[in-house]
Specification:
seven-stranded mixed β-sheet; Rossmann fold; 243 residues; alpha/beta; 41% helix; single chain
């Protein structure tokens, strides 16, 4: 997917909203697969490839280069950081903004330390994607042993160690996006899984409170990856947002 992943024919683009999906850390197009398919009647979808760059700014520039002058943006986790960067670089181009399971705050010292340790492990050949033991940090307990958990583990293995190190480097060096929130005038939807332990609902509330007029939706029985864990619910929320 070197140039991003597109859904739908070009002939329908003029009647549909151009929509840029931004995956998170260790995620590829599979993260947004269900939404890309289900929204294809109203959205001309592009799924960015966030595996190739080692800075959030470079990820944002690569993604924006694929898009027409005006488009909607939905980003999850690290993809939310990329969405914030797009809002900083080119807010006039963004028609609508959706932020899923992300944070505007920088890492705590402890979280940053954990990232560096994980990068060191990946550098010496100990990268195994997301193990079953780590899955409860990403998905609701009900999904750990089912098809969602298996799909998440397969996705992280596809992304691989080198992309993981680039992404973690980008995340560590990201800006503090909290000062940006008050300047966002774009219609904004904030979504979070009720049981997200990586970026809990409190982080989503800070974003929603910081962006005037934004809406917060909390997805029940869901962890850090609502597009895969609760695809129908997320699709419904995004359909209303696009409408």
């Amino acid at each position: 997917m070197p140039g991003g992943h597109r859904h739908g024919s070009l002939g329908l683009m003029t009647s549909r909203t151009p929509l840029l999906f931004l995956p998170g850390l260790l995620c590829d197009a599979r993260l947004w697969r269900d939404q890309a398919e289900a929204l294809s009647d109203i959205a001309a979808v592009t799924i960015a490839d966030n595996r190739r760059d080692d800075s959030i700014a470079a990820m944002a520039a690569r993604a924006v280069a694929q898009m027409p002058p005006r488009f909607a943006v939905a980003g999850l986790s690290m993809g939310g950081y990329v969405a914030f960067e797009i809002m900083r670089l080119a807010p006039e181009r963004v028609m609508r903004l959706a932020l899923l399971d992300t944070t505007a705050s920088p890492d705590s010292p402890e979280r940053a330390r954990q990232r560096r340790l994980a990068m060191q492990s990946a550098a010496v050949g100990r990268f195994v994607g997301v193990t079953r033991q780590l899955l409860p940090q990403l998905v609701h307990p009900s999904h750990v042993d089912g098809p969602v958990g298996a799909a998440v583990r397969a996705m992280t293995e596809r992304v691989g160690a080198e992309a993981y190190r680039r992404q973690q480097k980008a995340i560590l060096a990201r800006a503090d996006f909290r000062p940006l929130l008050a300047s966002v005038k774009t219609p904004t939807l904030v979504i979070v899984g009720a049981q997200d332990v990586m970026t809990p609902p409190a982080e989503a509330r800070l974003i929603q409170e910081g962006i005037a007029g934004s809406r917060l939706a909390i997805v029940p029985d869901c962890g850090h990856l609502p597009p895969m864990e609760k695809p129908a619910e997320v699709t419904s929320l995004l359909r209303d947002w696009l409408g």
